[in-house]
Amino acid sequence: MSEPTESRRQRASRRAGEFPPAPEPLPRPVLDSHTHLDITVNEVGVPQGGAAADPVAAAIDVAAAVGVDRLVQVGVDVESSRWGAEVAGAYKAVVATVALHPNEAPRCRDLDASLREIETLAAEDRVRGIGETGMDFYRTGDEGRAAQEESFRAHIAIAKRYAKTLVIHDRDAHADVLRILDDEGAPETVVLHCFSGDAEFAAECVRRGYLLSFAGTVTFGSAGALREAAALTPLDQILVETDAPYLTPMPHRGRPNASYLIPLTVRALADTTGADLDDLCAAISATGERAFGPWS
Ligand SMILES: [Zn+2]
Fold first, then answer.
1. DSSP 3-state assignment of 166?
2. Less crowded by CB within 10 Å, the N or C end of the chain?
3. Predicted local confidence at residue 50, as pLDDT
């Protein structure tokens, strides 16, 4: 007889115990420019043993306590995009972005119908961005590329139509992302989420005026090229994100991530760029307001 399977709730509460301790608060407030609150509370649980009655409020409170007082909730499919738009309407600290993830687009039974749903949500006031969209050659093979590119192009068009920030997921696809953006014409504000390029690609993105959002990966020992990229990015083109519950910064890599761990990544970025921590926080906050604000 096999062991009884752990229920989703049991698994989530076991994993919630793995959340790392809260870091030292930041001297000035910043935002988490890219988080998946839905996945975090459903798959992992409530950070720091916050009140489970309202897991979203608990996640917001725990983050605000260390200076992360604004969050951008990012959609990956129609369902999570709808959820994000609703949560952004209900909580002042949250705004949303909506999209079909580049690995999701090739799996859509009716891509056009899903894109129409995304476009409907794009019109909402608390929806401030279109993303995460883009190209992913790591998880999607040749057979999915045409659908991925079609979806990316459609999202660029929606971002421009509704004057929303475009949030790009780019995995092993730097040249194609730039090619498609050039071909379509980029929206006014473009964010490269979880920036993963080297100095040369960063310089190209900076020249185009794009914003580079750095995740916990910038703290990893192996990320020398990424730190070189961060070091040459002007302070007013830097954003910071968790991509929670993924990409937990050092020294907690492997444990679940949440917005309250942003201070670890901000401090690593201050070390890397040589920027004063206060100045870096102020710059990130202002850039976040430009791209996604105002929150209230
Ligand atoms: Zn993401």
1. strand
2. N
3. 62
In whole angstroms, give the CA distance from residue 233 to residue 253. Answer: 25
- Amino acid at site 200: E
Ligand 1: distance of its center to the CA of 76 in Å?
A: 8
Q: Distance from the CA of 273 to the center of ligand 1, in angstroms?
A: 24
Exposure b/e, 257-273, CB count within 10 A at least 16 = b: bbbbbbbbbbbbbbebb
pLDDT score for 213 = 98
Kindly give, in sequence order, each residue whose CB lies less than 8 Å from that of residue 2, ignoring residues fewer than 6 positions away: none
pLDDT of residue 12: 61
Q: What is the pLDDT of residue 159?
A: 98
- Cα 207 to middle of ligand 1, angstroms: 24
Q: Could you tell me the distance, in angstroms and rounded to a whole number, from the CA of residue 74 to the centre of ligand 1? A: 7
Residues 209 and 236 sit within 8 Å (Cβ to Cβ): no
pTM value? 0.94
What residues flank ion ligand 1 with Cβ within 5 A?
243
Output the CA 31–ligand 1 centroid distance in Å: 15
In the chain, which stretches have pLDDT less than 50? Answer: 1-4
What are phi and psi for residue 17, nearest 5 degrees?
-65, -15
In this structure, which amino acid lies at residue 251? Answer: P
Q: Which phi and psi (to 5°) does residue 239 adopt? A: -125, 165
How much distance in Å is there from the Cα of 72 to the middle of ligand 1? 10
Tell me what pLDDT residue 45 has.
86
pLDDT for 9: 60
